[in-house]
Specification:
Layout lengths: L6 H10 L6 H11 L4 E4 L6 E4 L9 H8 L1
Antiparallel strand pairs: 1-2
The structure holds zinc ion.
Length: 69
């Protein structure tokens, strides 16, 4: 079975991205970058990655509050 949509891209993204053992670790790393990166749990490696694709997602206000400064 071939995986035409989504999965292949996610695989490559997974391999390229930094992995974090917990959401807290990912969030801390995002905070250091100063960018509005969002931690998410990867269903391939079961670790957390960061994504900059924040459009259309609801971000917790506390997250912006922490990174705004
Ligand atoms: Zn992954």
């Amino acid at each position: 079975m071939r995986e035409e949509r989504g999965m292949r891209t996610r695989q490559s993204i997974c391999e390229k991205k930094a992995r974090f053992p917990s959401e807290a670790d990912a969030r801390a790393a995002a905070d250091r970058t100063g960018l509005p990166l969002l931690p998410y749990l990867c269903d391939r490696c079961r670790a957390f990655h960061l994504t900059s694709r924040t459009k259309g997602k609801r971000l917790p206000k506390a997250y912006f509050h922490e990174t705004a400064a």
